[in-house]
C-alpha cells in the first residue's frame, strides 16, 4: 500500500516531573504507528516540513519513510507540553508555523490519506476540499489541535471549531478525544455527537478516552452502532503521542482488512504500548 501522512513535525519540549526534555513530535508519532504496522512493499509518504538543522532529531524514523514531499522549514514549530497534571495537558507554543506546502501530485496514487492537525494550521479547509475533490480513497482526519485557538501568550485553549461542517464534509474517518469532541459538537452524549458528525458524510467516528478506553461509531443501515473497548492495562510512563499512534495503526489496519473491530483492537493495543513507553521497541525489532 501507499499511504500519505500530512501534518507538521514539531520539536516537543516536554515538562514532566520537574524536568524538561527535547523530543521529536507531531506527525512523528503518526509515522511511528505506521512503521509499527508497515509490511514489505508498503510506502509511507510524509508530507511535512523539517528544519534541516534539526533533522537529526527525526532522522532515525524519517529515514525509513518516503520523504519525497518533505520540505525545509526554517521556522519549524515548537511547543512546551506540560504533562504534570491529571487530564488534558497544557500546550504553550514557542513558535507557530505556516501552513504546510502540499505537493502537486495525483492524490489517487495513494491508497489512503491521513491528515493529523498537529498545530491546527497544517492545512486549511480549502486545501482539504481540494484533496477531497481529487481523491477517491479514504481520508482519515485527526482533529487534534484544530480544537484549540491561540491566546496572546501562545497558549492553545479549547474553542468551538469555526465552520466545522466544511471540515466534516470532506473526510471519511474522524478521530478526536473527549475534550476535542466538545469543540466539534458540544453534546453531553457522545453517541448523539457522533450521529451529528455522521450527518455530514463522515463514515466512522473514533473517540479516544484515555484511561477509559476508546469508542467507534458507525452506521449499519439506518442504525448507529458502537464498539467500545477498555484501555489496555499498562503502567503509564508516557502521555505523548498515544492518540497519534492509535489513529495511524487503526487507519493502516482498516485499509488492510476493512475489519472495524480488529482495527480498533489493534489501535487500542498499540496506544497502550505507547503509554507504556514500549512502542519504540517494536520499531527496533523490525530493523
Automatic annotation (TrEMBL):
GO terms for molecular function: kinase activity. Keywords: Kinase, Transferase. It comes from the Bacteria. Pfam families: PfkB (PF00294). Residues 206-258 form the Cyclic nucleotide-binding domain. PROSITE patterns: CNMP_BINDING_3 (PS50042). This is Cyclic nucleotide-binding domain-containing protein. It comes from Melioribacter roseus (strain DSM 23840 / JCM 17771 / VKM B-2668 / P3M-2).
Amino acid at each position: 500500500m501507499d499511504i500519505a501522512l500530512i501534518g507538521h513535525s514539531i520539536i516537543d519540549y516536554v515538562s514532566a516531573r520537574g524536568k524538561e526534555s527535547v523530543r521529536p513530535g507531531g506527525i512523528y508519532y503518526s509515522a511511528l504507528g505506521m512503521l509499527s504496522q508497515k509490511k514489505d512493499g508498503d510506502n509511507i509518504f510524509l508530507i511535512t516540513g523539517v528544519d534541516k538543522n534539526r533533522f537529526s532529531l527525526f532522522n532515525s524514523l524519517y529515514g525509513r519513510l518516503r520523504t519525497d514531499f518533505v520540505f525545509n522549514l526554517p521556522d519549524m514549530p515548537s511547543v512546551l507540553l506540560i504533562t504534570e497534571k491529571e487530564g488534558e495537558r497544557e500546550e504553550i507554543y514557542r513558535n507557530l508555523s505556516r501552513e504546510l506546502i502540499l505537493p502537486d501530485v495525483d492524490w489517487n496514487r495513494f491508497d489512503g490519506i491521513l491528515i493529523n492537525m498537529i498545530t491546527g494550521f497544517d492545512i486549511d479547509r480549502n486545501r482539504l476540499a481540494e484533496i477531497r475533490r481529487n481523491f477517491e480513497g479514504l481520508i482519515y482526519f485527526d482533529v487534534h489541535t484544530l480544537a484549540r485557538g491561540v491566546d496572546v501568550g501562545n497558549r492553545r485553549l479549547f474553542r468551538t471549531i469555526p465552520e466545522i461542517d466544511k471540515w466534516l464534509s470532506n473526510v471519511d474517518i474522524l478521530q478526536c478525544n473527549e475534550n476535542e469532541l466538545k469543540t466539534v459538537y458540544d453534546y453531553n452524549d457522545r453517541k448523539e455527537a457522533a450521529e451529528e458528525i455522521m450527518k455530514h458524510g463522515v463514515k466512522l467516528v473514533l473517540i479516544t478516552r484515555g484511561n477509559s478506553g476508546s469508542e467507534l461509531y458507525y452506521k449499519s443501515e439506518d442504525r448507529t452502532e458502537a464498539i467500545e473497548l477498555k484501555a489496555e492495562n499498562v503502567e503509564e510512563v508516557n502521555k505523548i503521542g498515544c492518540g497519534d499512534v492509535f489513529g495511524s495503526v487503526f487507519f493502516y489496519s482498516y485499509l488492510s482488512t476493512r475489519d472495524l473491530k480488529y482495527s480498533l483492537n489493534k489501535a487500542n493495543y498499540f496506544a497502550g504500548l505507547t503509554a507504556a513507553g514500549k512502542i519504540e521497541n517494536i520499531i527496533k525489532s523490525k530493523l
